[in-house]
Amino acid sequence: MKKTTFRLHTLGACIAVLLTGCGGGSDGNSPSPVPPSPPTPTVKMLAMDGFSVVKPGVRSHVDVSNFVRGDQIQLSDATVTGKGCGQPGISGLSLTLTAQQGAHCDYQYTANQVGTPSTRVHLQVLATSASQALLPPISGAMTLNDDPKAFDVAALLGSDWQEGDAIVADFVSVQGMEGNQGTATLDGTTITFTPPALAGWNRVVFTVKNSQSGDDKLGVIYITFSDVVNQAPIIAQPKYDINANNPAITARSGESLTLDLSQLTDLGITDPEGGDWQLLEVKSFTADVSLVDKESITNKAFTFSAGTVGDHYISYIVADEYNGFTSGLLKLNVKASEGPMTWTSLDDNNKNTFTAPERYSDIYRKGYNVSAVWDSHANNTLAGFNAISGDSYCKSLGMLPTVQDLTALRQAHLNDDKHKGLDLWPSKKPYLASDGDSMKGFWIDDGQTKDYDPSIPYYVTCLASHEMTLNMKRDSVVANGDRVVLATVTQPIDSKGITLKKLSGSLSDTDVDISTDSRGKVTTLTTATTKAGSYRFEVTDNGDAENVLISPEVTYLADADTATFPEETGLVVTQDNAAADGQAQDTLQVTLKDANGNPVAGLLISAESSSSDSASVSVSPATTDVDGHTVVKVSDTEEGSVDIIAHVKRPNGEVMDSTTARVTFADVLSGNYPCPGGGFACLPVLPSTDNPDVWYTPDPELSYLKKISYPRSDYTDTYTENGKNGLDGFKAVRFNHTGQAERWCQYLADTHYYGRSDWKLPTKEALDSLYNEYIAVSASLALFTAKSWPTDSGYWSASPGDSESDFYHVYLGNGYTFPYTASNVNYVSCVSE
Fold it and tell me: Which residues form a coiled coil (predicted)?
């Protein structure tokens, strides 16, 4: 069969513009003046797609110099697509724009350089105040014969879905193959996707707003849909961390990297039918990615380049020769592109020393809040500060210079030889300077001063203290009890010593145990602790109380080389008895601590089943958080118990195993009591026989509420069934209708019970319908006889009675129904539609 190649529709076409000039008039006697030729660029242009965040509703300058590198570059033809996105302007290597709260905008511009083809560049922009603007991507696979597929975004994102999050209905869109796009509908946290007529792929882009913080985040679901007669390629690790599995691969900002999927360790892409596969499409919001050979049906490689440091997510589509499509997600960490510093600290004419502006990685390691800024003049990545972090940094060396100080420095070096002195300093961004009670930006190349703009990064040089200097030897310490050198303080030979004082942090002076050893002009500070946390201190000259230096925040890290799973808490079941439908999940919490009981963050956790071949086990997020936690998620297609064990590889290479924990999977939607394995510590789900998408729960038993730690104040009492209208010994929980009944169903919705988030009190008509489905079994004991539900009391409905204080309740044994005062107690069934 001949293979058909599909490609994602590109949002913007590449535009090449050739500008030509016409000669001017001549009087016939003298030649027309010839304009000087523009200088030839020395650094060839590299243009990359990128992603940026702007403050909502505020005119912002987005510097794109990280994404467009080279010299003598000009921008032109800026356009935008997207709802709530203002038309852009161009100012040097910046776009000026305004975007409304939550808007996702695709800004496009042309980057031009003499002698180089013009390049059309995309800048994805999200208007939000969120510190982390992108949610981890989600992926799914379907066949063309499948019914519409529901993606419960909250459940799929796990810990990345925060309390107060909600999907914005107006910002859900389907993108992908031109003329072959599916449709998406939103219901609460669930996006339901209906595939189009032909095999291929789409992506659903959505915005999540948090009602508590007001922040917006951008999310995406990548969906493939294949022919039903063909088995699509299989990806062993559909969510794959390139760096963790391939330590030799290093990506740096502004540098192009070629990645071959077939060569990535344990990614494991195979065709179950024994055929070949190809990489068909690759996309990223934050990086520039493209296929190495778009026309080759055996291509497995793509190129990657990114203008910003940090983690980047890449989605890709692989296909076999018979229209079988599978999507996968890659994560790649990008480091700063840095070379040796070619510039040094300088003095002005008054012998005041100005420290050399530092590279990004040097400052980032010290714990300051900085961004990575590419400087084409210095050909290096500099630390970009804001007003707070810049001032804090300079307090560790001396003080932030004033505008007058920087003017004096510039005047002192105006006659420096080219490529010497101040001419070597990074100059593509302003330097932070104080000006009375405000901050300014000072341009070192021409001496211009502009008001401080919090949306742009600033370089920082500090006015060094000749009286006393603080030299930090490290900004992080392993909390293993070993004493290490933290810093040295240098003073004049006749000084009177120093005094240390804690400024901030979670650790006390006793915890960090800093000791001093003074020898001549130098005092060495050492520290030792077994407690993880943070600590920041100030150094005061005993001879001059106004001479104070402030350290960066020092992080005391857990000892990862002793990381282990605590016996009692290392692997704990947090959600059990999921349906054995291959989608519902049981969850377990992982806890990782060091030998001193400190939580260990940032280690990769793996998990597996030691007892089931049908269980699917994943870890999300892949690494432990600051509390040493992550979550193991398990699904299965077979009912019964599954044994789970977690593993961690210490930095020293040792592999540690957790104790075994057991989760249970219930018969898919049986709706029956007792629970699988006996007892009542579960909550069955019963699909309607008339409409299988409508699910009901019976009244819960007391042992189940205790198992899930449900608040005692949220139910009134219990009634013990005696075998007549319910199973003997069943302690049925009873609720009033003044808040308790509603809160129980809302709890099921909030915890995404059985993967659904729309649980609610049923109407009287819904309960009548449920009873009628089983009236043929027994008109007087319908749900008890058919499903062993408790039926001695009525079940509350959401339908109000004639009085404001009454609601209908329905007996699911005999079908009787009548209004009942809300302060009374009844059983509760919840419904999901």
Answer: none
Q: CB under 8 Å to 446, separation ≥6 — which residues?
A: none
Enter the tokens of residue 585. 């999940």
- The pLDDT confidence band at residue 363, using thresholds 50, 70 and 90, is very high
Per-residue CA distances from 261 to 65, 145, 245, 334 (Å): 30, 29, 12, 18
Domain containing residue 70: CATH number? 2.60.40
Percent of the chain with pLDDT over 90: 60
Q: Can you say how many angstroms the Cα of residue 546 is from the centroid of all Cα atoms in its chain?
A: 44
Domain end: 301, 335, 369, which one? 335
Residues 620-648, mean pLDDT to the nearest whole number: 91
**709: phi then psi, degrees, rounded to nearest 5:** 55, 45
Backbone angles phi, psi at 11, to 5 degrees: -70, -30
Token code pair at residue 805:
């204080």
DSSP element (H, E) containing 769: helix 764-773
| CATH number of the domain within which 143 lies | 2.60.40.10
**Mean model confidence pLDDT for the chain:** 89
Measured CA to CA, the distance from residue 237 to residue 101 in angstroms comes to: 36
Determine the Cα–Cα distance for residues 587 and 104; give it in Å rounded to an integer: 33
Task: Work out the number of other CB atoms within 10 angstroms of the CB of residue 153.
Answer: 24
Name the band, by pLDDT with cuts 50, 70 and 90, for residue 496: confident
Q: Quick: pLDDT tens for 46-104.
A: 888 888 888 888 888 898 988 888 888 999 999 999 888 999 999 999 999 999 988 88
Instruction: Give the structural domain span for 176.
Output: 131-229
Final residue of a structural domain among 61, 93, 127: 127
Element (H, E) at 770: helix 764-773
0.85 exceeded by the pTM? no
Q: Shortest CA distance to 650 belongs to which of 608, 592, 609?
A: 592
> What contacts 554, CB < 8 A, 6 or more positions away?
367, 474, 475, 476, 477, 486, 505, 512, 527, 534, 535, 536, 537
Decide if pLDDT at 771 tops 60: yes
767: left (phi over 0), alpha (psi -120 to 50) or beta: alpha
Per-residue pLDDT, 772: 95
Run of H or E including 744? helix 740-750
| Per-residue buried b or exposed e for 478-516, using 16+ beta carbons within 10 Å of the residue's own CB | bbbeeeeebbbbebeeebeebebeeeebebeeebbbbee
Do strands 476-478 and 463-464 pair parallel, antiparallel, or not at all (unpaired)? unpaired
